[in-house]
Amino acid sequence: MTKTVARKKAKIILIGCGPHAKRIYLPALLKLREEGLVELCLIIDVKKKEDDVRSVVAKMGFETEMWFLDPFQYSIPDELSKRLSSFAQCQCVDGVLISTEPLVHHVYAEWALRNELSILMDKPITTRADVVSNLSNAKGILDDYIKLFNLYSRVQKKKETVFLVNSQRRFHPGFKFVENLLKEIGHRTNCPVTYMQAYHCDGQWRFPSEIVTQEYHPYCLGYGKASHSGYSIFDMLYRFYTAPGVESKIADTMEVVSSFVQPAGFIKQYTEADYVSTFGAGYNEVKKWSDDQLQQMCEDFGEIDLSSIITMKKDDVAIANLSVNLVHNGFARRTWLRPGNDLYKGNGRVKHEHFSIQQGPFQNIQIHSYQSNDVHDQMSGLEGDLGGNNHFDVFVFRNPLLSGSDGSLKVYGMSDILASEAESVRSTLVTETVKHRVVREFINYLNGSGSKRNLSSQIEDHLVTVQIMSGVYHSHILRKENSDCVVRMPYGRPRV
Q1: Which of 115, 147, 166 is the last residue in one of the domains?
Q2: Separation CA 450–CA 452 (nearest Å)
Q3: What is the pLDDT of residues 403-412, one digit of tens each?
Q4: DSSP state of 23
Q5: Where are the alpha helices (DSSP H) in 309-363?
Q6: Domain for residue 407, yes or no?
Q7: In which family does this protein belong, per the annotation (predicted)?
């Protein structure tokens, strides 16, 4: 087996230059370029984004080749594949950043693997069009993962590469802090996680007509919340569940039950008459379809809100329930009729997040993270208090057998958590800072200065997360068909 050759400057390709790449990847690469660690050889995006991408790239001072393509979905056109492979070989490219529409994650990842390149890819690993209504596609999310993992495994027999998934909470100091608390009590008591509740709300108010037209974090392609930020929450369910390290008490099977609210239900919650009552006659100027028309158009659109219970079982006995509630349609700060240009961090979007994790009678950990502001570029200090941009409080309740004379409750804020961080964050979003660290970790590996065994989010460790995501869609489809909607699957063992 050969190993990646150490070099002073990693050469990479950025595939997809949308809102996330502009806000995270390009600034991170710019910093790394200034340090002489990376060369951005090529940017790829679709033709309709050409003017926008060229403008952003020029403003940031990158001088790189750019290709703009006609969209495709299920496979890379042969001519493009050959052209891209030739470019990667001639330029001695080391790796790719994949930040495209999720529907083409798998085809670009497959191309990169066949060319023996390392990968850093946005979550989710894959999703599929109409996954909310097509059972084959719901199961196909897991099939995609297994195909990519098997191909990656074959590549490793010839050359060491990495395949990283940018599931950013794995790198977040607050979530790592909680994992360590769970590990500590697992070691002291041999008690696993026995119950967990997770809640995440994007605080995004998307108007009915926008549900049809918007292509960023879309519903119109037949997938929604579970394929957007939902993947990160599923991933933390898995990470927290395994954090105590009590291997003998980990589940061997799972059962998943889910329920979705889709756009057809959203339209019934708040009607066009209600919008006119709130915004006045101006609403009719932005309304493109009536509620009756939207009901027909949106029947199989992706999920806006979802709830699910994942039952962990061992030897066919339930040993833990993991409850997850994911919401797009929640408290928001939008007060205007027409959407803003920034749909990633703007447009009134406000994040609320909560976890409650029980470790039997020994420990309860609660994470509370609630923003009250939708403007994240103009920060003053850490803003770690309730409602601040970096609000992240951890409540830890411990049995007196463990806490002794220290009392049963300790509360940690973001400033406490960051006190042990080598690089303290004081005036930026912590979630964005950790995403920059993901890029640096990837580039360090490509440069030969980082070890593969120390990487935090390799594809090998994402099977259970993908199983949960696939199962959540699978269960919803069965429920819509009035069938038995309990989806039974192995825990962490791929299908043969």
Answers
A1: 166
A2: 7
A3: 888 899 999 9
A4: I
A5: none
A6: yes
A7: Belongs to the Gfo/Idh/MocA family.
SS3 state of residue 326: strand
> pLDDT for 21-72, tens place per residue?
998 999 999 999 999 999 999 999 999 999 999 999 999 999 999 999 999 9
Is residue 279 classed as helix, strand or coil in its secondary structure? Answer: helix
Residues 212 and 155 grouped into a single domain: no
In a domain, 446, yes or no: no
Whether the Cβ atoms of residue 437 and residue 176 lie closer than 8 Å to each other: no
Q: What is the pTM of this model?
A: 0.94
Show the low-confidence residues of the chain (pLDDT under 70): 1-8, 343-344, 378, 420-427, 494-496
Interatomic CA distance for residues 421 and 430, integer angstroms:
12
DSSP code of residue 414? H
Q: Which residue has the tokens 């920059």?
A: 436
Would you call 63 exposed, middle or buried from its count of C-beta atoms within 10 A (0-12, 13-18, 19+)? exposed
| Judgement on whether residues 339 and 247 belong to the same structural domain of the protein | yes
Q: Are strands 195-201 and 10-15 parallel, antiparallel or unpaired?
A: unpaired
CATH code for position 104: 3.40.50.720
Distance from C-alpha of 117 to C-alpha of 158, rounded to nearest angstrom: 12
Q: Where does 157-271 have alpha helices with state H?
A: 173-189, 208-213, 230-242, 263-269
